[in-house]
Design goal:
473 residues; mainly alpha; 2 domains; two-stranded antiparallel ribbon; 2 strands; 56% helix
């Protein structure tokens, strides 16, 4: 239970958030939020008995009747739940028309969930909204405080709820984790990640005990998604800070090349990224000749897997081309990450410069298609490995105007901030810190690359020291 104490060892704001600031119900989200919404229409309550019916309704962009969630009557702040459905969920997939698991998986579950889950959703919605309208900042903190208090009481009264078959505890922790990422993206979200790891470990142990005398049951969709959420956050964030992983490699099967729409790539690609991260951490401990041979073989194997990886998707949707482009973009980014983390690649090298330009051009085109949620990691890697002396990425063939690398990155980050649930502000701060360090040590770029694998490489020298607790999902 030690992780629970860590999770909730923060000051609580006990102000009761009963009322939102005054707003025009028909235009509040459209005018104060990040993008326009269609005007609200009166809708009759509708009912259904199967989850798939709920999914179909949600995915047709019909604003679901809030009467499906009776707990909202006592919680109030309905507009925040509406904001979550119409503004947050569409920003978690590659196009607004795609199915977001935050809607298709989580919302059907919320129909029977406790008010704490709905309040956690409202807290996230208010936090995201506060990025565009500061009046929702206090509301978000008050709601989060209530969620933490409810959660603490639940754990104290019924510790066995941690290992219950119902995944409600994991869902609540997931939204608390997202809240911290959207808010400041400080170390608090890592505390939630650590808590989730312990909860999952306890639940799996309990499930193993139960299945010793019964048939093994398949994991429910909510548990599957929440565990994937935590594991993916863990891998992508730790590519930057190079710390030991929490969730291990069991989630990533190297032969699964099917693109996951929420991740924007295949488990096979994540498996390679995870292995690069793991090998990079052990690189400087390989001091003997035999160790170095082993390192070279493993690095070459990963490079070959990455170069030959072909990711695929099994649907007939017209938007397949977009998700294919995103998955390929992440593969190209992984090539840069591998070269820098394992082979000491530097921004001034031709191969790195070529890949960085390809990545940035693709990010520009994808953002033009409003696909912002999957490009934070590619943009980050390209930005931190951008040559400080290369101020002319490319020239417009018609106007002759030159594109400056750093200016382009900052412009892309500004555009992303309006269309994602990522911590763009923290990502920008880290990128700028890397740039300052490179500028300060500009003379180092002319030195020959170190050949020994035991010496700090470029990624470890500039990126790792400033990237602690950075979320890149």
């Amino acid at each position: 239970m030690s992780f629970v104490r860590r999770l909730y060892d923060e000051e609580q704001n006990h102000t009761e958030p009963h009322l939102l600031p005054a707003f025009n119900a028909k235009t509040a989200i459209g005018e104060q939020g990040p993008c326009e919404l269609e005007p609200s229409s009166s809708m009759s309550p509708f009912s259904f008995t199967q989850t798939m019916e709920m999914n179909n309704v949600l995915m047709q962009n019909i604003r679901p009747s809030l009467s499906l969630f009776p707990s909202l009557d006592e919680l109030g702040n309905r507009v925040l739940f509406d904001y979550y459905i119409n503004q947050v969920c569409p920003r978690t997939v590659h196009t607004p028309q795609s199915q977001s698991p935050f809607a298709s998986v989580i919302l059907p579950y919320c129909i029977s969930a406790s008010p704490t889950v709905l309040r956690a959703i409202q807290a996230l919605a208010a936090c995201h909204w506060s990025q565009y309208d500061s009046q929702y900042g206090n509301i978000s903190l008050q709601l989060k405080s209530q969620v933490l208090n409810d959660f603490r009481k639940r754990i104290n009264i019924d510790p066995c709820s941690l290992v219950a078959e119902d995944p409600e505890v994991l869902v609540i922790v997931m939204f608390l984790c997202l809240f911290e990422i959207v808010d400041d993206c400080d170390k608090q979200w890592i505390v939630h990640l650590q808590g989730a790891k312990d909860i999952i470990r306890l639940r799996r142990r309990q499930q193993r005990l139960l299945t010793e005398t019964s048939e093994s049951m398949p994991q429910d969709p909510v548990s599957s998604f929440t565990e994937l959420f935590f594991a993916f956050q863990d891998v992508m964030g730790r590519t930057a800070c190079a710390k030991a992983d929490l969730f291990g490699s069991s989630y990533w099967h190297e032969d699964d090349t099917t693109i996951n729409l929420w991740m924007g790539c295949s488990p096979a690609l994540v498996s390679i990224i995870f292995s690069v991260m793991d090998l990079s951490r052990s690189r400087r401990l390989m001091v003997s000749d035999e160790d170095q041979v082993t390192f070279n073989i493993r690095a070459a194997t990963l490079s070959n897997r990455l170069q030959t990886l072909r990711q695929e998707i099994h649907t007939d949707e017209k938007e397949d081309q977009t998700i294919h482009r995103i998955a390929e973009l992440k593969r190209l980014t992984a090539v840069v990450y591998l070269n820098c983390a394992l082979y000491g690649g530097q921004p001034a090298e031709d191969v790195i410069k070529t890949y960085v330009r390809r990545i940035l051009k693709e990010v520009v085109e994808l953002l033009a298609l409003e696909s912002a949620c999957h490009v934070i990691w590619p943009l980050f890697v390209a930005a931190v490995e951008l040559d400080p002396l290369d101020t002319e990425l490319w020239a417009d063939p018609e106007t002759g105007s030159v594109t400056d690398g750093r200016r382009l990155v900052l412009e892309l980050l500004t555009r992303m901030a309006k269309n994602s649930v990522s911590s763009v502000s923290r990502t920008r701060a880290v990128i700028e810190q890397v740039w300052k360090s490179r500028d300060f040590n500009l003379s180092q770029s002319s030195k020959p690359k170190q050949s020994s694998i035991t010496v700090l490489n470029d990624w470890e020298r500039y990126v790792v020291p400033v990237s602690d607790a950075l979320s890149l999902v």
